[in-house]
Amino acid sequence: MTAPVRTLLLWCPDWPVIAAEIVDGVPATGPVAVLHANRVVACSERARAEGVRRGLRKREAQGRCPQLTVVEYDPGRDARAFEPVVAAVEDLVAGVEVVRPGACALAARGPSRYLGGEEAAAERIIEHVAQTCAVESQVGIADGVFAAGLAARAGRIVPPGGTPAFLAGLPVEALGRPALADLLRRLGVRTLGDFAALPAGDVLARFGFDGALAHRLAAGRDHRPLAVRQPPADLTVTAEYDEPVDRVDAAAFAARALAEQLHDRLAGHGLACTRLGIEAVTAHGQELHRVWRHDGLLTAAAIADRVRWQLDGWLTGSSGRGGVGRSRPTAGIIRLRLIPDGVIAQAGLQPGLWGETGEERERAHRALSRVQGILGPEAVLTAVLGGGRSPADEVRLVPWGDERLPARPGEPPRPGEPARPGEPPWPGRLPPPAPAVVLPTPLAATVHDADGEPVVVSARLRLSAAPVRLTVGAAQPMEITGWAGPWPVDERWWAPAEARRRARFQVGLADGSALLLAVEAGQWLVEAIYD
C-alpha cells in the first residue's frame, strides 16, 4: 500500500467571515455570523466570546449576542476572496490544491528542501501570505491531507510516522461527519483511535463505504494524491517604447504588432478573446484604461482595429457629445498593454441561421465601435427589454457591445405570447402593445367629464365620471373616444420617502391617436404615446 504523502496545509480561520470583510466590508473584528439555511456556519472570534457557535439557529444566535451582524453564506464570495491567498502561496511553491475556500494543501517535500526544513517553510509561507494579502493563517504538516488539516487547526508539525498517534486522541467529531460521529458515540466509540482499532471488514459491513473511508482516515491511511491546480496562464501582452508614441500613424503600427502578438498567444492556448482591456501609460505617468466588449470572437484584425481606434481617441482628445471634449494626454505613450479580460475556448463562431452574424452586421459593429473609440462608450446606446410595471421601467439603455442584461428580471413577452416560466408576474404591468414613444418628462394634462367637471380618481380607484375631454398643457381640448383602466401601481410603500402610488389609463382620441395617462396625487400626466 502506498504511504500517505507528507502534506503541508495552510488554513485561514473563520474564512467565510474574513471573505465577507474583504468583499463586502463587514468588519471581522466585531461579532459576525455567516448563516446558511438559517443556521450559523461560521462566526468571528468576538461572536464566539458571546456564546455564538456553529449550528445555532439565527434567532438563538441573536439572542446570545444582540449586536450580532448576520451575513448570508456565499461560496462564490469565499472562493473569489481566497484566490489571492492561493496566488501568494504559489509565489513560493508549486503544485497547490485548493481543498476548500480557506484551506489549500501541497506536498511538503519540495518547499521543506528549498526553504530549509518544514518549520522554516511553514513560517515563510505564513509570513508571505500575511504581507501579501493581510490575512492571518496557520500551517499544519502531517502524513496525508486529512491529518494535515487537523494539524493546521492546532498549528502543529506532526513528525513523520507520528500521524496515527496524533489522530488517536482526537474526538470522532473531527471526521466532519456529524451523523457518523453521533452513531459512534452512542456505540461507545469516542476517539479516532477507538474507531481505528475496529476491524475494517466489520466497519464496512456496519457503516458502508463512507464509514470505511472515514475508518481509513482515522487510522492515518489517507493516501489520495493531491489534486494540484494549474496556475492560470499569463495572457497579457505589453510593449514599451523608447520614444513616446504621440502620432496616430505610429499608434496604428504599434497596435497592429501588439494585437497579432496577443492573438498568437491566445491561439497557443486554444482560446479566443471576447472582452479586451487596453491600458496605456504616458511619459508623464498618466494611466489610461478602456474595456472593449464584443458579442463574437475578436480576431487579430478586430483586436488591432479596436486598439487603433482607442489610441486615436486618446491621442486626438476628440470631442464627446454636446461638444464636451476629453483632455488630450500631456505626453506620448511609452507603455501599451493588452489584457484579454474575457476568454473562451476557441471553437469557432457559428453563423446565425438568418445571417445576423454576417458581413453586414460586422460592418455595422465596426462602424459603431469606431464611434465609441472617438466619443466614448456611452456615445452608442442600445435598448434592452426587462421587467417592470411601466414602459420607462422596462427599457434599459446599455453601451453598444456590453452584455445585454435587463435591469430587472422578467423580460416582457411579445404580444400574444404567454409569460415565460420562472419570470415574476409584475402585478400592475400594462397589457400589450407597448407605446411607441415614452416621454422623458411627463406632460401635465387635465381630464373633464361630459359636464365639464374635472375627473378625479378615489383611493379605491373609482372614477368620479367617465372621461370625455382631454387637455394637454395649453393645447385645445380633444375628445376622448375610448378609454381603458385603471391599472394601479403602489410601489415601495414600506419606504415613506420613496413611496409612489398612481393609476394609469389608456385613452383613444378623436384624431386617431392614443395616449398613456397617469394620475398621481390628483394630477393627470401624459406618460407615453401609442403609434
From TrEMBL:
| InterPro entries assigned | DNA/RNA_pol_sf, Rev_trsase/Diguanyl_cyclase, SulA_CellDiv_inhibitor, UmuC
Q: Where is the stretch described as Disordered? A: 400-434
| Amino acid composition bias (Pro residues), ranges on this chain | 409-434
Q: Which Gene3D superfamilies match?
A: 3.30.70.270, 3.40.1170.60
**UniProt keyword terms in alphabetical order:** DNA damage
Annotated organism of origin: Micromonospora globbae
What does the UniProt function comment say about this protein? Answer: Poorly processive, error-prone DNA polymerase involved in untargeted mutagenesis. Copies undamaged DNA at stalled replication forks, which arise in vivo from mismatched or misaligned primer ends. These misaligned primers can be extended by PolIV. Exhibits no 3'-5' exonuclease (proofreading) activity. May be involved in translesional synthesis, in conjunction with the beta clamp from PolIII.
Fetch the Pfam families from UniProt. Answer: IMS
Q: Does the keyword Amino-acid biosynthesis apply?
A: no
Q: What family does this belong to?
A: Belongs to the DNA polymerase type-Y family.
> What is this protein identified as?
DNA polymerase Y family protein
Q: Which residues form the UmuC domain?
A: 31-156
